[in-house]
Amino acid sequence: MSRRSSILRWALGSALCLASGAAFARYSNADLPPAFQKAPFLKMSLSVGSPIEGFQLRAKRLRATESLALKNAERRTAYGHPSLVLMLQRSAKQMAREASGAVLLVGDLSNENGGPLAGHRSHQSGRDADVGFFVTDAKGRPKRLDHFVAFGADGKAKDGSGLLFDDYRNWLLIQMWLKDSRAGIKYVFVAKPLRQRLLHFASSRPAFKKYAGAAAALLLQPSNSAAHDDHFHVRITCPKGQEKLCVERVAVSD
Ligand SMILES: [Zn+2]
To answer: What is the pTM of this model?
Structure first.
């Protein structure tokens, strides 16, 4: 049996615990492939399997701060690999510094042990996070939200609220993610019209132009998933040293 299918078999076996009535899957070191049931893995934060069929152990919990709000604070879905959680904290702090008053609105990461997460296909192995767009009111004044709002290609909110997609602050965030080499950001999923909007915004400004090419490679709309017109979905690469436990290649989001 290949390594990948072995990992999937372990993940699936554990996920079946769901049928016993648990609110979410629980995993332990015993669910790791035998080759990983030893030091140093038994004490590490681990991302196991793929984002659509996996789990995590010893995850870090993302908490709200002055510059970071949790959309689903009442759900226990803000657990991720420490690389992801620390990256989000860095982005939030930096956004608050560079765009005064900016607060990063973060939706679901993963369950404490990962596994299937209601409302998502991925988000299973602690490497995914949903991040709300920065928005302004109709007069261009930054506005803070506690929920995600969908936007069209024209930058206007689809809900008729008059809110606008904040090209400048959303681009700043993308640029920060491009420069953040510590977490190793693999993809940022976003709807194609908004991706085009951001790339056009950057290309037409001398200060941002040089990052547009790299942003084009980072920003994706997955063909087999929801449109992502109301949030960015950011995914980090497999953590260093876990390449044999963590499955990288699935480009599916949601
Ligand atoms: Zn997502």
So the answer is: 0.90
Distance from Cα 188 to the centre of ligand 1, integer Å: 10
3-state secondary structure of 96: helix
Q: Do 189 and 251 meet the contact criterion of CB atoms below 8 Å apart?
A: no
How does pLDDT run across 97-142, given as a tens digit for each residue? Answer: 999 889 999 999 999 999 999 999 999 999 999 999 999 999 999 9
Q: What's the rounded Cα separation, in Å, for the pair 116 and 119?
A: 9
**Residue 253 Cα to ligand 1 middle (Å):** 6
Q: Among all chains, which residue has been given the structure tokens 């803000």?
A: 78
The token duo for 94 is: 């930096």
Cα 18 to ligand 1 centre (Å):
21
Does domain 3-236 bear CATH number 3.30.1380.10?
yes
Strands across the sheet containing 68-70: 68-70, 104-106, 128-132, 231-236, 185-189, 219-220
Ligand 1 midpoint to CA 239 (Å): 19
Domain extent listing, the chain: 3-236
| DSSP per-residue codes, 180-238 | -TTTTEEEEE--HHHHHHHHHHHHTSHHHHTTHHHHHHHEE--TTS----SEEEEEEPP
The answer to whether 30 and 224 are in contact (CB under 8 A) is no
What is the total residue count of the chain? 254
